[in-house]
Amino acid sequence: QSALTQPASVSGSPGQSITISCTGTSSDVGTYNLVSWYQQHPGKAPKVMIYEGSKRPSGVSNRFSGSRSGNTASLTISGLQAEDEADYYCCSYAGSSSYVFGTGTTVTVL
Amino acid sequence: QLQLQESGPGLVKPSETLSLTCIVSGGSINSRSYYWGWIRQPPGKGLEWIGNIYYSGSTYYNPSLKSRVTISLDTSKNQFSLKLTSVTAADTAVYFCARGNGGSYFHDYWGQGTLVTVSP
Prior knowledge:
The structure holds 2 protein chains of 2 kinds. Chain A is mainly β. Chain A is built from no helices and 9 strands. Chain A has strands at 9-12, 18-23, 35-40, 47-50, 64-69, 72-77, 86-93, 99-101, 105-109. In chain A, strands 1, 3, 4, 7, 8 and 9 form a 6-stranded mixed beta sheet that branches. Chain A has a 3-stranded antiparallel beta sheet with strand order 2-6-5, with no helix packed on it. Chain A is globular and about 40 Å long. Chain B is mainly beta. In chain B, the strands form 2 sheets. In chain B, strands 2, 4, 5, 6, 9, 10 and 11 form a 7-stranded mixed beta sheet that branches. A 4-stranded antiparallel beta sheet of chain B has the order 1-3-8-7, with no helix packed on it.
């Protein structure tokens, strides 16, 4: 059960769109469309932004969207805002009631 | 509003057992709709899933930690616990407890996290 692969950092200017990738295997992302995405500000607990690949919990901005293609899931943030600057982690169900997190991506708003 | 709060020693000696408790308020842990889990984050590093426990008492652990981990439920106190044996410096991390949404496979409520340092 290896960590899912994410880019270490992604940056963008206010108002732009950015996409964070999350690459797994046929044992996790590729088989289960059960990827969740978490936003984590420094010193804080993670907050779920996307679940089941593309669903947004109540209260999460519609600027956040998720998708999947093959073994790779993606999180897109549109209309980038200063408050979006944070670390983002993907997490996939991996069968047999187990989970695997991604390596994490730091989003910088220029 | 559901709240989770981790509690336990912030310092543990190498080779000893790390023990943490997650106190749940604002909701019952005795629900078929949810599971309860532990996730950790070494300083400056990423999140690592440790394991989950369901209302039935069934447990599931990260294979890399399975031989050292035990998660248990105490429904009478509305809390659940983590024990990690034979700790080393590599187990130094912020430990989060969280509720899992059983139908949708994600963690929807998290505790604030507690730093546990393994040091002599």
